[in-house]
Amino acid sequence: MVKKSISRALSLFLAVVLTAAVAGCSSNNGAASSGAASGANGDSSKKVALTFFSNLPDRSTGQGLLEQQLIDNFTKENTNVSVTVQSLQDDPYKQKFKTYVAANNLPDVFMVWGQPSFFQSIMEQGYAAELNKGDYDSYDFLPGSLDGFSLNGKLYGLPRNSDFMALFYNSKILSDNGLQPPQSTSDFTAMAQKLKAKGISLFAIGGQEKWPLAILWNDMVVKETGSDKVVRDAFTKQDFSDPKLLQASTDFQKLAKSGIFQASISTDKTADAQNLFAQGKAAMYYSGEWDMSMATNDAFSEDFRKNLKVMAFPTAEGGSGKLTDIMGWNGGGYAVSAKSPNKDAAVKLVNYILKPENWTKSGWEQGLIVPAQKFTDYMTGKETEVQKSLVNILSTATSTSGTPVNDSGSAQFKTDFETAVQELATGMIKPDKFIQTLNDSVKANPVS
Questions:
Q1: DSSP 3-state assignment of 85?
Q2: Which of 164, 214, 256, 388 is found 20 to 30 A from 289 (Cα to Cα)?
Q3: How far from the centroid of its chain's Cα atoms is residue 312's Cα?
Q4: Which residues touch 437 (CB under 8 Å, ≥6 apart)?
């Protein structure tokens, strides 16, 4: 299996970006190209109706608003094109996506996660149109960012952001209770007990959706072992029986049983967990850089935004991992249906959205994203502290995991892993049973 990772070259590039923040077309070869006109057949007067499937359902704020604004701008510039958007939250999105695939009737443009469990079979089975690599020579995609959207040297999708995990925290809650940001995971239990007496949870996490727990488990493996290698080896060997993985699973369950999570972990979605955090009912929120907009979102109180801080997930006491060994990968992006009757217009829309001066410039300046494209030219010197901290986390990374464990295998392995890790977190199964479940699933559902 090919590892999908943010390369060391990206870390070096972002080191330059951090310094700046503190200081102030080839032949088609059968691939779909943006073309010279918006019409499917090169006729700019032809009426074209595109369908667009998104995982950003809030079209009034954040990335959803940015995506909609860019679509609207595109249709203003291409008056013969109309775009109908369907948008759903991640889990409903995935279910609806399966329905579209089963019917072989995907929307013209659709969001994809550039991860094996989601996109590999879509590329292999010919559902996504091949894109012309030469169209993106000037797009400045960061090193490694196109890997998860490519197969056998061909390009089938484009990434939006550079995704990585971090620990958001409310500095006022910590200081009011005589607490400091955690130095290692061993600090969590005592912190949780002290806050629980005040009716505050230490962590808020979307346990119902399961994937945050899966990535947290993966993060603990990285911090205990120093890299993601033991997980990659497990996929290669189709065997998760390494003692290091059992130990990480034991420690994960021990922390969960100590009460670090909110009581409603099993029923809370990610949005619910974020609301608990924003309302001061939890001191910390484990999520990705995509939630950086909490610092600028007027929907949250000024007091919350003023005290919002972020750090890398802490090290494990006795572990060989460093604070700078992080969970990082390139996740969501866009692809075009191979069966689209308006393929040229669909590609042109995707290319327009991801022009560096559109998605990257606007998203960075609004404090919404860490882009998958070079954004040095768009530094304003007015970045929020959260933005600066997140860039620091990524720019100083000594290793990045690549695709999280739950998305590194088959779709069935993803389901099995996420169900098992939720059961591990809630005490329904023991660590040895958890490992056995992973072994049974990876053997039954191998990925090439």
A1: strand
A2: 256
A3: 15
A4: 416, 417, 420, 429
Domains 25-162+330-378 and 164-327+400-444 share a fold: yes
Residue 170: both structure tokens together: 């409310």
Q: Check if the beta carbon of residue 139 is closer than 8 Å to that of residue 36.
A: no
Alpha-carbon distance of 426 to 420, in angstroms, equals 10
What pLDDT, in 10s, does the model give residues 362-420?
999 998 999 999 988 898 888 999 999 999 998 899 999 988 999 999 989 999 999 99
Three-point CA angle 435, 438, 439, nearest 5°: 90
From the list 441, 416, 405, 371, the residue with the least C-alpha distance to 4 is: 405
Return the H-helix or E-strand segment holding 155: strand 154-155
**pLDDT (tens digit, 9 = 90+) per residue, 60-88?**
999 999 999 999 999 999 999 999 999 99
- Per CATH, the homologous superfamily of domain 164-327+400-444 is Periplasmic binding protein-like II (3.40.190.10)
Token pair of 119 as six digits: 């996109």
Question: Pairing mode, if any, of strands 109-113 and 48-54?
Answer: parallel
Query: How many other C-beta atoms are found inside a 10 Å radius of the C-beta of residue 270?
Result: 21
Domain boundary assignment for the chain: 25-162+330-378, 164-327+400-444
